[in-house]
Amino acid sequence: MGTRAREAVKAAGIKVPELVTLLNKAYADEWLAYYQYWIGAKVAAGVPKGEVVDELEEHAQEELKHADMLAERIIQLGGIPVLEPKLWYEQANCRYLPPKDPDIRTLLDQNIKGEQCAISVYYKILDFIKDKDPITQRMIEKILKEEIEHEQDLEDLKRDLEMCCKKK
Ligand code: FE
Ligand code: FE
Ligand code: MG
After folding, report:
1. What residues are neighbours of ligand 2 (ion), with CB under 5 Å?
2. CATH tag for 3-162 (out of 3.40.50.300, 1.10.10.10, 1.20.1260.10, 3.20.170.30)
3. Ligand 2 center to residue 147 CA distance, Å?
């Protein structure tokens, strides 16, 4: 095991390698989510797209921060964050949806699906931790709170678009 912090998590009854696997799968999700938002913001088309692009860019940065938090915790737990980007696809829980249709409505729908998947992933990790690892728990709760905000932000934008600009 190594560090006292790791031993404490194990002593609390957590199977540390299993937790590391769950965190690594979420880590792969976050990189794909980051890229989906980032590239979506680049290709976005439609009027008015400005507000959607700003939100996609903001969420991209938040997903990247989630990847950062997960990588640090994986290392603290004695694991190695996924080193090969090609493995993100294999290990992710959630599907990467390439933004082939640049319509902002389609982009919003794709990203809403991603957020809904992320929300279930983080609830499952909390269920696995069951109050036995307060450090990981607090981190996951913080990420989950942001994923819930992301989903709501996208739903709000979608509603605003429907009210302002009917699709022709
Ligand atoms: Fe995230
Ligand atoms: Fe998110
Ligand atoms: Mg937002």
Report:
1. 147, 150
2. 1.20.1260.10
3. 4
